Amino acid sequence: MAAPNPVSESLSKKTPESAFTFLPRGAIIQEFSVAGLNIVQNFPEAQLYNDHNSAYFGETIGRTTNRITDAEIRNLNGKTYGLAKNSGKNSLHGGTSGWGKKEWKGPQALKRNGKEGMLFSYLSKDGEEGYPGTVECNCWYTAGLDQGKTVLEVEYEVEMVGDEVEETVVGVTNHSYFNLNPTAPTIEGTVATLGTAAYQEINQDGSATGKIHPLYHDPLIPSTPHTPFIFTSSTPNPDDCFVLDPQLAPSSIPIDTRTRPLRILATLYHPSTGLHLEVRSTEPAFQFYAGKNIDVPEVTTSKGLGVPARGPRAGICIEPSRYVDAAGREEWRNMVLLRKGQTWGSKSVYTAWKE
Predict the structure, then answer these.
(1) What is the spatial distance between Cα 307 and Cα 297, in angstroms, rounded to a whole number?
(2) What is the dihedral angle through the alpha carbons of 195, 198, 201, 205, rounded to the nearest 10 degrees?
(3) Is the Cβ–Cβ distance between 136 and 165 less than 8 Å?
């Protein structure tokens, strides 16, 4: 069950129809409710995540995000590290049992940036899923109201706390699926915009080729940023990493992106509910995924209540991140390369409201 949540209680006092719930397992976002509607895909009980969360609903992804080609990192600490292969020949979302599958310490209630929030922490030991070095990740969730809109801030910090090696690689994001018409089985009718049309080219297995194209390959997603498009029952069907500044030298992206301004990654709106979502982040890229591979069976709670199956296009993922395979490609590695004494960091802000 979810731990007591002071953020939810604070929001309930101000707007009774808005609430958040977080779980220690994977520092998962279980509930993000606006106007009485939970806009994230979830399970009603923590135990169900243990057995059925193949889709990564709400998980904090780490020690790295997305895919690493051939599940291998070369020339790190002068060595080659083999990782867990859980996506064909590649490693996906930190491996077979990444951070989203682990029990985190917390929540610890606190004030951060003047807002009520909570802290989850996870200690990832040297060798876990093949990654070198012991690191600690702190995940802060803070929530509040801004001009009548519900705002969730997600902030990550990772530091090396062990002495086993001099360097490692890190990437962290949240894997929530959003559906702004939650009573519907799919995202059909959702109106979206993206902050960029540039994206990373990938192979058939999802690994990065190393190329970044300025315009998206599907004409159903506009070539001009911030131009609305609509999800039908089957199109468009993106599962790609979009890059905000394709002309920016990867070497200029800092290990702690919180020095960069928050920028709009994507917006969603559904006319049936009048709900809006805006996602901003300091991160240089984001995976935008229409959920084509969601395959979660119908399950039953401990009280015998049925939870409907979730299938393709049940939600949209917007995953703020570094580049796909940044850990595996030395020309991009600086943005994920964490050394002793450094801090990996990022911040993302989710703003939702009903018109």
Answers:
(1) 9
(2) 10
(3) no
Q: What is the pLDDT of residue 150?
A: 94
Dihedral (Cα; 243, 234, 230, 220), 10-degree rounding: 50
pLDDT one-digit tens code per residue, 11-23? 332 445 678 999 9
Q: What is the pLDDT of residue 113?
A: 85
Give the pLDDT confidence of 110-169 residue by residue, as tens digits.
999 888 899 999 999 999 999 999 999 999 999 988 899 999 999 999 999 999 999 999
Beta-strand pair 239-243/285-289: antiparallel
* Rounded Cα–Cα distance for residues 103 and 99 (Å): 8
Average pLDDT for the chain: 94
Burial class (CB in 10 A: 0-12, 13-18, 19+), 54: exposed
Closest CA to 142 of 176, 108, 171: 108
Of 348, 334, 329, 347, residue with least CA distance to 66: 329
| Secondary structure of residue 100 in the 3-state scheme | helix
Report the percent of the chain where pLDDT is more than 70.
95
* 296-334 pLDDT per residue, tens: 999 999 999 999 999 999 999 999 999 999 999 999 999
Separation of alpha carbons 63 and 67, rounded Å: 11
Length of the chain counted residue by residue: 355
Q: 46: helix, coil or strand? A: helix
Cα–Cα separations (whole angstroms), residue 158 to 124, 220, 290, 326: 10, 38, 29, 17
Q: Are 306 and 300 in contact (CB under 8 A)?
A: yes
